[in-house]
Design a protein that fits this description.
The protein is mostly helical. The chain has 2 domains: 32 residues, no CATH class; 35 residues, no CATH class. It has 4 helices and no strands. The N and C termini lie far apart (46 Å).
């Protein structure tokens, strides 16, 4: 079965009636189910190129990487988390 972008109004209403926590859990469940069969995911050429871009950049210059402490510090200011 292929999703054609048309969701039944009932399903949409049911999803929107879930709490935010339940919707986040649903997103996780959907993501997990997708990860179980990665070979079925069809990517466009542009999406494939975007996935390859950081790998190619790192291969050209291995010093271009994001160290975990730097990433954590950058994201903390957006999330209000630890610095």
């Amino acid at each position: 079965m292929r999703y054609d972008g048309a969701m039944s109004e009932v399903a949409r209403k049911d999803i929107l009636n879930l709490s935010v926590a339940e919707r986040i859990e649903l997103i996780g469940d959907l993501s997990d189910s997708t990860a179980e069969t990665p070979e079925t995911i069809e990517l466009t050429e542009a999406q494939k190129a975007e996935f390859d871009r950081p790998v190619d950049a790192h291969r050209k210059d291995p010093t271009t990487r994001n160290r975990w402490p730097d990433v954590r510090q950058r994201t903390a200011k957006f999330k209000g988390g630890p610095k």
